[in-house]
């Protein structure tokens, strides 16, 4: 898993590191990294480095200082560098002096549109970790006329470093160079950041435990249940699915199918859509009610269940079964309407709640808001459950405060029934004994991978996501040396 640290933690780490380094050394390391990436982009986009034109947008802080120093380094490679000063009275002095010495041009904001029109590359050094709110008017006007590729220093200006949210105007970068650590914006708003490149400034030893973690292919490969010589149909776990209704048989078929496709374990189904489930998935043992179903090692409850009395009693029965439960869709709504249902749960029974934003609002009484990580964390603590908050970024919070996020790869999952597929996958992982936080995070990762594989650039349905689960598992195992070893 890749670690992500908030602004506060990065600043504290930088302060500790600065006590042991010569003044200005960190900025120069950072800026050198920016200049290397800039040269790479110039080669790619302009076909040359020397004699190409770079425009630096320079705000009134150290982010602007980084841009100015990077400009000075680029001058050594024969690049024509022009700095546009957005806060002339607060410009980083050493950086400005370094660019001047190196032969860079300095212009005021008024000249910005003219120099930008000639640029082969624009370096965004408007604002970094101190960013608050969207771009201010002058910066916004300049950002608006940029046509050339953009390299953002630390983060695209105008995005919130800790939530990735944009309120107002913001830069859209092709490449973002981050120093010493990945920050939340880099994983929560990849659309604004473009490709994120890491520059090591020696911070690693000062950072401590990450605030967030990003799920990677290796994590999925390491935990995905793959049958070995000693396994039989029971050792990978039996998933129970309580989903669907006469009105929503499709949800039952999708949820059950996702559990079938995810592992070699067995799947049992309970509900009024048993006939439809049996017809589509002959390997499933399907019965009418939860009480008839026999032993399972996990339950998935909720998709298409309805919010009537039958649904409520199903949720109650499942929560009192003493096995891990993934609570999705209508089961989340039922918990929101009847919180006492949770009393049926033994406090030691692991629970994964998988709300989307509207379900989350019903459950918690407030929208997730800008800080979705904080919202998911608070809900996890409140319900003593893993909370998987769906959205463009899926956020998975454990009651102990740990948070996983998945980085979106397109919006392919914005299709009816995709949540049903996810809950079936998580249920199968829970049945195999995967700890709930990991099951939810890794389930979401492979779900997104399945969608990306199925889509290949065109819109898809949830059935196609479901069919692509085995390919997604193969793909994460192939991407990861850990997967090869399993
Ligand atoms: N610490 C280190 O060791 C290292 C730090 N490094 C670098 O320092 C950067 C942090 O620098 P920083 O703290 O000087 O502030 P920075 O982000 O440049 O902001 C400047 C000023 O902009 C303003 N402003 C706020 N919001 C705004 C908006 N939306 N639109 C426009 N303007 C806005 C606000 O001023 P205000 O006008 O509100 O008084 C703010 O004070 C960090 O991201 C990294 O690049 C690297 O060199 C590595 C070593
Ligand atoms: K920036």
Automatic annotation (TrEMBL):
HAMAP family: NADHX_dehydratase (MF_01965), NADHX_epimerase (MF_01966). (6S)-NADPHX binds at residues 62-66, 128-134, 154, 251, 304, 356, 420. One of its GO terms (molecular function) is ATP binding. Residues 216-476 form the YjeF C-terminal domain. The keyword Kinase applies. It holds the Pfam family YjeF_N. This is Bifunctional NAD(P)H-hydrate repair enzyme. It catalyses: (6S)-NADPHX + ADP = AMP + phosphate + NADPH + H(+); (6R)-NADHX = (6S)-NADHX; (6S)-NADHX + ADP = AMP + phosphate + NADH + H(+); (6R)-NADPHX = (6S)-NADPHX. Homotetramer. Its cofactor is Mg(2+); K(+). The keyword Cell cycle does not apply. Its EC number is 4.2.1.136, 5.1.99.6. It comes from Haloechinothrix alba. Keywords: ATP-binding, Isomerase, Kinase, Lyase, Metal-binding, Multifunctional enzyme, NAD, NADP, Nucleotide-binding, Potassium, Transferase. GO terms for biological process: metabolite repair; nicotinamide nucleotide metabolic process. It comes from the Bacteria. Binds 1 potassium ion per subunit. K(+) binds at residues 63, 124, 157.
């Amino acid at each position: 898993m890749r670690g992500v640290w908030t602004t506060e933690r990065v600043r504290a780490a930088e302060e500790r590191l600065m006590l042991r380094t010569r003044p200005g050394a960190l900025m120069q390391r950072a800026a050198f990294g920016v200049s290397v990436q800039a040269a790479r982009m110039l080669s790619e986009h302009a076909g040359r480095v020397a004699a190409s034109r770079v425009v630096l947008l320079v705000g009134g802080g150290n982010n602007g200082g980084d841009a100015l120093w990077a400009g000075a380094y680029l001058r050594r490679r024969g690049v024509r560098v022009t700095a546009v000063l957005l806060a002339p009275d607060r410009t980083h002095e050493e950086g400005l002096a370094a660019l001047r010495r190196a032969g860079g041009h300095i212009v005021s904001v008024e000249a910005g549109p003219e120099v930008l029109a000639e640029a082969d590359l624009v370096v965004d050094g408007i604002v970094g970790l101190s960013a608050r709110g969207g771009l201010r008017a002058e910066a916004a006007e300049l950002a608006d006329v940029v046509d050339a590729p953009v390299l953002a220093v630390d983060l695209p200006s105008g995005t919130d470093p800790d939530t990735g949210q944009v309120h107002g105007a913001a830069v859209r970068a092709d490449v973002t160079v981050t120093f010493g650590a990945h920050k939340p914006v880099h994983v929560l708003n990849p659309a604004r950041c473009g490709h994120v490149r890491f520059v090591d400034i020696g911070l690693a030893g000062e950072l401590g435990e990450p605030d967030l973690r990003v799920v990677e292919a290796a994590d999925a490969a390491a935990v995905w249940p793959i049958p070995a010589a000693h396994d039989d149909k029971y050792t990978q776990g039996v998933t129970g699915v309580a989903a669907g209704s006469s009105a929503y048989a499709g949800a039952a078929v999708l949820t059950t199918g996702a559990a079938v496709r995810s592992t070699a374990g067995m799947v049992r189904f309970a509900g009024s859509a048993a006939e439809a489930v049996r017809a589509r998935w002959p390997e499933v043992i399907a019965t009418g009610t939860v009480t008839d179903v026999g032993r399972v090692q996990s339950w998935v409850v909720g998709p298409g269940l309805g919010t009537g009395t039958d649904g409520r009693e199903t949720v109650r029965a499942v929560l009192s079964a003493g096995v891990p439960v993934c609570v999705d869709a209508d089961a989340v709504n039922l918990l929101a309407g009847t919180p006492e249902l949770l009393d049926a749960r033994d406090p030691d029974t692991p629970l994964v709640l998988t709300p989307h934003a509207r379900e989350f609002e019903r459950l918690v009484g407030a929208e997730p808001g800008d800080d979705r990580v904080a919202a998911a964390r608070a809900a996890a603590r409140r319900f003593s459950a893993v909370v998987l908050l769906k959205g463009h970024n899926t956020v998975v919070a454990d009651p102990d405060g740990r948070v996983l996020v998945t980085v979106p790869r397109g919006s392919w999952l914005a299709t009816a029934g995709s949540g049903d597929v996810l809950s079936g996958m998580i249920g199968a992982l829970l049945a195999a004994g995967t700890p709930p936080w990991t099951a939810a995070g890794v389930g979401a990762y492979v779900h997104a991978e399945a969608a990306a594989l199925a889509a290949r650039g065109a819109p898809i349905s949830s059935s196609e996501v479901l069919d692509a689960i085995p390919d997604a598992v193969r793909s994460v195992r192939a991407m990861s040396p850990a997967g090869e070893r399993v």
